[in-house]
Prior knowledge:
Layout: H1 3-23, H2 31-39, E1 44-48, H3 52-61, E2 65-68, H4 72-75, H5 87-100, E3 105-109, H6 119-133, E4 137-141, H7 147-155, E5 160-165, H8 171-174, H9 184-200, E6 204-208, H10 212-221, E7 226-229, E8 237-240, H11 242-245, H12 263-279, H13 296-304
Parallel strand pairs: 1-2, 1-8, 2-3, 3-4, 4-5, 5-6, 6-7, 7-8
Helix pairs in contact: 3-5, 5-6, 6-7, 9-10
Amino acid sequence: xxxxxxxxxxxxxxxxxxxxxxxxxxxxxxxxxxxxxxxxxxxxxxxxxxxxxxxxxxxxxxxxxxxxxxxxxxxxxxxxxxxxxxxxxxxxxxxxxxxxxxxxxxxxxxxxxxxxxxxxxxxxxxxxxxxxxxxxxxxxxxxxxxxxxxxxxxxxxxxxxxxxxxxxxxxxxxxxxxxxxxxxxxxxxxxxxxxxxxxxxxxxxxxxxxxxxxxxxxxxxxxxxxxxxxxxxxxxxxxxxxxxxxxxxxxxxxxxxxxxxxxxxxxxxxxxxxxxxxxxxxxxxxxxxxxxxxxxxxxxxxxxx
Length: 305
Ligand code: KIV
């Protein structure tokens, strides 16, 4: 087939891709789908992802949303917290996730100091996630004190997810990675934050490490979907960190984590077996080697040996 013919066929397929996907039952969810899911009490499934392979597997599993969390600082780069994570790292990982999960709603997590300062920088950095990594939304940590940033990003036409409760970027002020909203006074503060975030135009809200009673009040009060990571069963959906779910992250395990696999154990065993087999010359075996063509080794021997 001539290249130009091939290219025009490719262009035609790309143009019709949304219709083709719909006809095969593949529908990329939007914020409207999530609002409908909340109304009919269908739980939203949400997972962090930092790379192409996990994003691809998550999409195949029917995951509703993926978060490129700045938790990648700890889970991928081995930092002690999330503060050192840069916009550049977030963009590169967001691009990989988007490539692995082209039909899933993906959310880019704005890293520390990419939005807390002036509003122009907040809009610019949020926009980079959309322009360079084709995300569907960005997430910002903080309650009423970041309302101006949420407003500026929403006013620029972008979808925002708020994040309150245990906010790792300000964990120093919280006295560490501690559950929030455990007193009446702090629960009331969280409820006011949640209402203000919805009022400002955020489309989604994430609650981290708060009691289920408080999660329930907020999820019932708000009309936008309210997701939970350690905020109880009553929220509109659940988020886990992929490295926790798979049993890969070993530094610490928060109370809200359920490990669905022990990949660290499986990987460790595979590495140890490989080391042992190489040392003992059990690997590679005949089936892993490339043989010379018939008669070629004899020729080589007569030329060089
Ligand atoms: O970075 C992240 O993965 C997050 C979760 C901890 C909510 O923000």
